[in-house]
Write a sequence for this structure.
């Protein structure tokens, strides 16, 4: 049995995006294979993490790379998990 993938019919067009531009985005998504969509999602997640890490480095220039990465993880995990797994709680994000 072949599973068909559809772009959601729910419209969450960003306020700063015209209807014409959003239609182009949706058309592009429709043309992508599921693998391409997953790849794009991963790429955007990596990009978001790189931007967040750059901001953390800007805010805390005297800290080492490990601490920067722990601060990034603290943005994604709750304080209890961070403390249990890494002995680290970021109180200065």
């Amino acid at each position: 049995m072949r599973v068909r993938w559809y772009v959601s019919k729910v419209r969450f067009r960003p306020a700063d995006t015209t209807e014409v531009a959003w239609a182009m985005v949706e058309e592009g998504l429709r043309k992508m294979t599921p693998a391409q969509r997953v790849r794009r999602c991963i790429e955007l997640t990596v990009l978001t993490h790189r931007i967040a890490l750059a901001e953390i480095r800007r805010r805390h220039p005297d800290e080492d790379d490990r601490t920067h990465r722990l601060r990034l993880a603290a943005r994604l995990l709750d304080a209890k998990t961070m403390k249990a797994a890494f002995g680290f709680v970021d109180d200065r994000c």
